[in-house]
């Protein structure tokens, strides 16, 4: 059960008996005190056992000026300290003894108090209190910087620690004459890993981080109290919000589990006397919102215009921590036109000011009623004075309350007592004003009702039996017959009177001012508004009575003009009238005249102006054109353009082969992407009989001009590059959909290849691949090309010993003076990119070195995924913290250190591709020293025909019918021009023989014979230029030639 606290500090309501009764009535069966728990001025004989039910206090606990010997707050576990006594203390215990006696507070029953979230502790001047200094206050107070102020001065002979059964630590919350308790220490004994409290000294004994005051287990439902909010027994950081985000629809949706924040609790419904502001229960709306009620629920909504004027009465001057103004002659004028008071209104000499009640303890002698509050309609009771929302105490001059507008007391009790002249109070039906069943009325020691009747201080005869607030027909709670505003009347002015009315039930409502008053004893109107008049006073416009017909009134489309007929009804003017009318015709329009000549003159004049302007524009354009031609002629005749800054760069003499669409045949789709589709195809050169397997990349028809430009840029780059380890561009077909024709790599990409043949790939082959990729990238670096997308998926396998780099779609050529390239937005392979590329989109040859290191890691892990399981958005933070890809199991520290050097943050600290090629060449001479692979010496090089990708290419065409592109283009590589349009007969590659003593076929070069370098002196005499080209195409590492 939740109950409201008080804020009276040391003041008392009346006598000690009433003080005790109010305390008991307020906190009996209470578990959570929403506010302050103030126990003051209670004598020694009182039964305080009802305080045992209190488990939590949101404000402060004040125990002062009492005479009892034992404080039975045995189940209190947490004091939140949202409000503090004197702005410093959450727990204040002082002056609890009687000066002329030997009794006072001796024992603190706070044996379960384990948490004070805010504020300190003040214990002082308790003469008979024992062992208060043995309490481990530092374990209870959460703020370690707060030093508890405990003065231990006892005049009572206390048991010393040797006589007690206290804990070994000498810490006890309650020291009594019966067996001593053990201290429930829950913070200072916890393991370092615990966020807050614990229920034991071990790491597994930590309480949940949302727990306060200790716990019985590690879950959020095992907490004794919650640090933030309690949601149906579970401690949470915040209550379920009214709206939740749906990641599927990308919309905020209503949360069926939504709850409101009420103190430290999550509730499905706010108390009726609180206001809902978004997802919280508040006492008052903020300044930019106003309070409205919908379906009996008060809520705060944003003001559409100026918010209702409100005034806040603050604390009065006094010896308390804060002070402010009271209502007096110096500031009473500030309350002019005030419609709502956000706070408390008090009329007494000295006192403190909680929020939400009306407290009258002092009143001027010349005022015999409370008529200054005649417009007060509701007492909210969001904060109470000792459980009371309406208090009128000891006012000798008040004879009547006169609160005629009061229709609701939302919370709290009514206490009206000791007012010797007060009458009419006994006629009021107080329970009809209450909203809750537990609200009570305490009225006593006022003037005897019989004396009031004798002096004719009774309700007006026009009042009903519900009672009245004072004399006269305007003080009735309800009228016996009819009411006009606040005044009760016996009849309405239906047929007579200066102002005519109609009866809406028992309420007399005034007719509209545009209704004509009837003189024939008939009704003037039968409902409110100008459309319910029996007869109009002036004019009738449709169903409404108006003072005059509309004349220039703004309508939905245009202005409205109407005229009055003889029967005073308004009718619309002609649609062409712009200044009103006196009748329905066009001739009746005000200001109407024959405008035909004027219109004709205007048309002719307008045409003349248009002709003059057109001629002027034509002459001006002609003169500018002639001037430009003359300037261009002079420039061409006299000016010579000379190079200002010659770059010295050699011309790009690469040849671009333009293919006809009839030379190409598409066979099957190999893959597709955002801009195009890649087909397996056959190229049959015009006039020849050879068939060359090719890959045809076709741009999608739906792509725009920018994609065409990027497609041709890729063709430019590929045509400009010619290297054994770069995929070669065979030609371009400029059909309606642009087609790039490249070599067809029969074994697919290197990533799939190493994953498929990981059990047959040895150290020699892996290191040879590292060399070939490094030499290909070294070639690109020499030609100032930044690849930007180097990865194992972009390296293709022509044969097991020959790989080629492809995918120049992201590559960019640097100008002669450029050292870096700054990219635009778009998707990027984050896990393969250097840190400067991710942060600044800055690409250099050294950023390609980083990607090379990741590519080598993919090979050494046989197709492993870099940073697998880590979201892409977390990669930059991970790299900045120094984390890198782990060392592959087969790599020695020498190989892994080469990778690590590629991943240095400083780009200039990374090795060059020339250095990388040399380093891996050195390792390839002794591969088993640098890569440790189980059964490496027994591994057999994979057969070129074993690849799944290779087999899929053979599904449509037979191998013996095709010629390799390299074989077809070899003569062109050595500047041997082929015979123009001369048919060539296909020679079976299996039947080719060379006149040289040694036959170096690509398959022979794939054998272990060439796993180690051969001296150049042995090969040079034997190799013709044509054979040398075949060796390079077959994949023999360059360092071996």
- Percent in strands: 15-25%
Provide mean pLDDT, rounded: 81
**Fraction of residues in H or I helices:** 10-25%
Question: How far is the N terminus from the C terminus?
Answer: 92 Å
Based on DSSP secondary structure assignment, what is the total number of beta strands? 53
Subunit arrangement of the protein: single chain
DSSP summary: helix tally = 18
Summary keywords:
about 1050 residues; alpha/beta; five-stranded parallel sheet; 18 helices; 53 strands; about 20% strand; flat; disordered C terminus; nucleotide-binding
Q: How would you portray this structure in words?
A:
Residues 664-931 form the Protein kinase domain. It catalyses: L-tyrosyl-[protein] + ATP = O-phospho-L-tyrosyl-[protein] + ADP + H(+). Keywords: ATP-binding, Cell membrane, Disulfide bond, Glycoprotein, Kinase, Membrane, Nucleotide-binding, Nucleus, Phosphoprotein, Receptor, Repeat, Signal, Transferase, Transmembrane, Transmembrane helix, Tyrosine-protein kinase, Ubl conjugation. This is Receptor protein-tyrosine kinase. One of its GO terms (biological process) is positive regulation of cell population proliferation. This protein is an alpha/beta fold. Helices cover 19% and strands 19% of the residues. The protein is built from 18 helices and 53 strands. The protein has a 5-stranded parallel β-sheet, with no helix packed on it. Strand 17 (243-246) and strand 18 (251-254) form a beta hairpin. Helix 7 runs antiparallel to helix 9 and helix 7 (763-782) runs antiparallel to helix 12 (913-924). The longest helix is centred in the middle third of the chain and has 43 residues, at 596-638. The two termini are 92 Å apart.
